[in-house]
UniProtKB/TrEMBL annotation:
One Pfam family matching this protein: DUF568
Domain (Cytochrome b561) ranges: 195-393
Protein name as catalogued: Cytochrome b561 and DOMON domain-containing protein
Highest taxon of source: Eukaryota
Locations listed in the record: Membrane
Classification via SMART domains: B561
InterPro entries named in the record: AIR12_DOMON, Cyt_b561/ferric_Rdtase_TM, DOMON_domain, UCP037471
Transmembrane segments annotated in the record for this chain: 234-252, 264-285, 305-322, 334-354, 369-393
Domain DOMON: 69-186
Organism: Sphagnum jensenii
Region (Disordered): 403-424
């Protein structure tokens, strides 16, 4: 959902020497420089970008590179007729997709936007008008319909992979020149019903809106709602579920096999698992809070995986509390259950962390960092697994065949008695 907080930015138009801003000169190149006033910078404000004032042989007075999805907007404001000619351009994701641009008369948000959506028809580019309502955000199919904004001269042109929407907006008397622009792109559209498929629910697709003063070019861009809370949610869950829990599993799996590691492996295992679970509960609660804040944008896969992970982790905690003694026959069944649930939880955690990274879109550095963590943990596990089996084979070679399990094979080093003391 597109909403505040917002950042103000200045629009600077760079003209060739000795020229003025009118429509009788050769094409001018405009650059947009965001000067943020407080708060953290957004991705769109990191560098100047260029655009052209001549689009498909049509000349416009001003242009702006929009802050998301590589879209551009060119326009000419006619004071006498109180009209604005627009040319919105964006790249099609694929030949069967769509590109949309519109104006929200009320606020800088998707809901309430009166949009023009262009796509490749059977013979030529096609343009339709759509009203984006609250029902649209709840999943009701978006069908073409009449809009209240007075657009004329609407058309669409496609050049290569770029789609351009042309339209003239007739302003109401005394209407503000600061207009809320919303745009996006999607992968598919049903040609029979003209219902566009949903756009992406991550990154720039959630930030594609800007309020622009059509006379001065000064714009207001938006940032993801509750972004700091989302970052905290992601970091806590990555550390708790994605790091502490795997380290706890590795401690129980490998450290207990070495003489001198008792009873420390057990303390490390319990500490990592308990701390990871407690922090995970905090991260899970933050996720519920974020969902309540953004009921119109629900990431179902990420949410359902989170619920499954929390449920399995809670079962693991209860299993520890209800753990049978080692001399009970049911202990073997408990061990199988405990290990199966634990390893399954780790797999789901890794999948869901990547889902969360995709949703937050923090940059390739974060995903690379977590992949590095997985590689280090995985490589360490493989090395320790080889070493552990090497110890077992060495012991098995020097002892009678009756003692075949890895745990029993290392019991002669005095580990088993200490392990039993700690209930493992």
């Amino acid at each position: 959902m597109l909403s505040s907080p917002q950042n103000k930015s200045n629009f600077v138009c760079s003209l060739p020497p000795n020229t003025s801003l009118d429509t009788h000169h050769t094409p001018i190149t405009c650059t947009m420089i965001f000067i943020l006033q407080g708060g953290s910078s957004s991705p769109a404000a990191t560098a100047a970008q260029s655009c052209q004032t001549i689009v498909s042989n049509r000349r416009f007075q001003t242009c702006q590179q929009l802050p998301q999805l590589q879209a551009t907007l060119a326009w000419t404001f006619y004071d006498q007729s109180n009209t604005i000619d627009f040319a919105f351009s964006d790249s099609m994701i694929n030949p069967h997709g769509w590109v949309g641009w519109g104006i929200n008369p009320v606020t800088l948000a998707m809901e309430g936007t009166q949009a023009l959506i262009a796509f490749q028809g059977e013979y030529a580019p096609t343009l339709q008008t759509y009203n984006l309502t609250a029902a649209t955000l709840q999943g009701v199919p978006l069908t073409p319909g009449r809009i209240e904004l007075n657009f004329t001269g609407m058309s669409a042109e496609m050049t290569g992979a770029d789609m351009t929407i042309f339209a003239t907006l007739h302003l109401r008397p005394n209407q503000s020149l600061e207009l809320n622009h919303v745009w996006n792109q999607g992968r598919s559209i049903d040609i029979s019903t003209l219902v566009p498929g949903a756009h992406a629910m991550t990154g720039g697709s959630l930030l594609s809106a800007s309020s622009i003063n059509m006379a001065t070019g000064i714009s207001t861009i938006i940032e993801l709602t509750h972004q700091k809370l989302k970052n905290v949610h992601g970091i806590i869950n990555a550390v708790s579920w994605g790091l502490l829990l795997p380290l706890g599993v590795m401690a129980a799996r490998y450290l207990r096999r070495f003489s001198g590691a008792n009873p420390w492996w057990f303390y490390i295992h319990v500490t990592c698992q308990c701390l990871g679970y407690l922090l995970g509960v905090v991260g899970w609660a933050l996720g519920i809070k974020l969902e309540n804040y953004n009921k119109s944008t629900v990431h179902y896969k990420h949410r359902n995986l989170g619920i499954a992970i929390f449920t399995l982790a809670t079962l693991q905690v209860l299993a520890i509390i209800l753990r049978p003694r080692k001399d009970r026959k049911v202990r073997k069944i408990w061990n199988v259950y405990h290990h199966a649930v634990g390893y399954s939880t780790i797999v789901l955690i890794i999948i869901n962390i990547f889902e969360g990274i995709e949703i937050l879109s923090p940059g390739n550095g974060w995903q690379t960092a977590y992949i590095s963590v997985i590689v280090v943990l995985g490589s360490s596990s493989i090395g320790l697994e080889i070493l552990t089996w090497g110890l077992w084979l060495k012991h098995h070679h020097h002892h009678e065949p009756g003692s075949k399990s890895l745990e029993e094979g290392l019991a002669s080093n005095g580990q088993e008695s200490q392990t039993t003391t700690h209930g493992k």
